[in-house]
Amino acid sequence: MPKPDEPFAMFMHLVREKLGDKIAHYQIPPPVFQATRGEIVEVDVEGGRLVTRFPILPEYLNPYGSMQGGMLAVAVDNTLGPLSMLVAPPNVTRHLEVTYSRPVRLEMGYIQVIGRLLDRQGQQLHFKADVYEPRGTRVARARAVHWIVEDGG
After folding, report:
1. Alpha-carbon gap, residue 94 to 144, rounded angstroms
2. Mean of the per-residue pLDDT values for the chain?
3. Letter string b/e over residues 108-126, b meaning 16 or more CB atoms within 10 A of that residue's CB
4. CA distance 86 to 137
5. Under a CB-based contact definition with an 8 Å cutoff, are residues 16 and 1 in contact?
6. What pLDDT shows up at residue 153?
7. What is the pLDDT of residues 39-86, one digit of tens each?
8. What is the pTM of this model?
9. Please, what sign has the CA dihedral across residues 17, 21, 26, 27?
10. Residue 41 and residue 120: Cα distance in Å, rounded?
11. Are 146 and 84 in contact (CB under 8 A)?
12. Which candidate, 78, 74, 72, places its Cα nearest to that of 140?
């Protein structure tokens, strides 16, 4: 088993363990996670929590010089998606709502997303996410509902 100080290796180990031979049917990490240069910072399966970090790149900026809101939503979805793989059978994002608090500027360097599983009700998973800039100021928050497409137990 990977060391706890290797979060991505830990994540991959846990996903392989959970999916078994079915892992061959999935692209893990997904291409969009790699394209956005996402990084897994912390994995806490028992606590239903995953922390990720995404760089703020010039190509993510809107005309005002801030990170495009949709790119911030991508970071949230790319945190809750991997978390959902750890805490439930295969599932998809059914609803994602993001509330923006502050502009995210290029000079901030990166954003950190803390995703948490709130609840499971039948086929539905309820998540929340908080997005922070490096000094710890929250710049956005989100809620999501995922739908379990295959109940493996």
Report:
1. 7
2. 94
3. bebbbbbbbbeeeeeeebe
4. 27
5. no
6. 46
7. 999 999 999 999 999 999 999 999 999 999 999 999 999 999 999 999
8. 0.93
9. positive
10. 24
11. yes
12. 72
Q: Closest Cα partner for 89 from 118, 123, 117, 121?
A: 123
Query: Which position has the token pair 């793989």?
Result: 85
* Class of residue 65 by CB neighbours under 10 A (exposed 0-12, middle 13-18, buried 19+): exposed
Place 151 in a pLDDT band, splitting at 50, 70 and 90.
low
Question: Per the omega criterion (within 30 degrees of 0), is the bond before 29 cis?
Answer: yes
- The strand ranges marked E within 25-100 are 39-44, 49-55, 91-100
- Residue 129 CA to residue 3 CA, distance in Å, equals 25
What is the side-by-side order of every strand in the sheet holding 91-100?
Answer: 39-44, 49-55, 110-121, 124-132, 138-148, 91-100
Q: Decide: helix, strand or coil at residue 38.
A: coil
Residue with tokens 């996410």: 129
